[in-house]
């Protein structure tokens, strides 16, 4: 087969594959923002992994305090005993065995059980708060990406509109050149403008498709596309209160719980030299022979063992010093998170004010630039204006419209950052959803095996 025939066959195969494979855009599911948030809460794989890790921590706490409860065990012992008669050398094998039931319990005489249970529960609550913080971060990133995609689509439409406009201008320029009304240079310039517009349109489309890929990743692999609806300039709707942010922001809550747990651990560690009291009860329901086991068959016995340590090689002393340093570290971490919260709120507010002012200014610039472009186009069409003036007016108009879209996008991003800064995208300590997700009406959709319930009210069972 000749080379050009091979190329032809390869080209045919590629075209056939492209026809058979579904187009990525055709498989996209149009969604509103609330639907997209719900899809994340239900199907985001990272979020689901986090839910399972929290559930594992829940059961880990229950297992960690199990030693505080009585334990029972059953034992069965059997053996053959060789018995030799005294009058002759004959031997016989005799079976001996017993069945026993044992109950043991360490009696808490130092008060360490309650401390240990509380510090385990606080460890779980801190993990839950950290998971809530990951939700706050994820949903904030999701909404930011959403609005970036919406504005990227608007920019793509704008670039396509500019391409059509420049293509029409190029057509008019060609007609004028054919009528010997303009020089060849005007055609070269207008053609260059068309090529530039094509490049900008392709770049805008690539940016939009990349953002759709990000949305798909967050939605658990589902191809998502924002519904094409009227774009509105956002309004500030966040209850701005630093003290509320300190109360509700999940990473602050996690740092506070970590500090509380560190203090309990120090108290628990200080009891390392405390005495212990162990109680044991055993009953032997069957034994053959009767005296084969202790206690004997159908007998019961009990014991109390009191132990007090004399020295532990200063292990308790150094463990207490270690716990004390961890408390100091936790205190500093809590203050650092509070400072970070204040910084996040301040920066988000400054960015909002800047973006809001920029949107207002750019809107006025768009109106002026649009009027300037309209006049320049009329003058050029009537032969009273130079082509370079038209190109400059078109370039200025394109730039200011693009800047206007950027200003609107920055308003959305600043608003998202503010919601994230005050913890609006996450549940509070009781599992109730904060403002942002409550507004979406999707706060109860992320439910695992346990519903991420709190252990703080749990008592020993």
SSE map:
Blueprint: H1 3-20, E1 29-31, H2 33-43, H3 45-64, E2 71-84, E3 91-107, H4 112-178, H5 184-218, E4 224-226, H6 242-248, H7 250-269, E5 276-288, E6 299-307, H8 315-381, H9 387-421, H10 435-440
Parallel strand pairs: 1-4
Antiparallel strand pairs: 2-3, 3-5, 5-6
Helix pairs in contact: 3-4, 4-5, 4-7, 4-9, 7-8, 8-9
What is the CATH class designation? Mainly Alpha
Protein structure class: alpha+beta
Number of domains: 1
* CATH-defined fold name: Outer membrane efflux proteins (OEP)
Main sheet summary:
4 strands, antiparallel
Whole-number average pLDDT?
Answer: 84
| Estimated radius of gyration | 38 Å
Q: Can you count the beta strands? A: 6
In DSSP terms (H or I, runs of 4 or more residues), the helix count works out at: 10
Strand proportion, as a percent range, falls in 5-15%
- Record the strand order, biggest sheet: 2-3-5-6
CATH architecture assignment: Up-down Bundle
- The geometry reads as elongated
CATH homology superfamily = Outer membrane efflux proteins (OEP)
Walkthrough of the structure:
The chain has ten helices and six strands, in the order αβααββααβααββααα. By secondary structure, it is of the alpha+beta class.
Short description:
The protein has 461 residues and is an alpha+beta fold. It has a single domain (28-81, 111-274, 316-440), classed as Outer membrane efflux proteins (OEP), CATH 1.20.1600.10.
Main attributes of the structure:
elongated, 10 helices, alpha+beta, 4-stranded antiparallel beta sheet, disordered N terminus, Outer membrane efflux proteins (OEP), two-stranded parallel ribbon, 461 residues
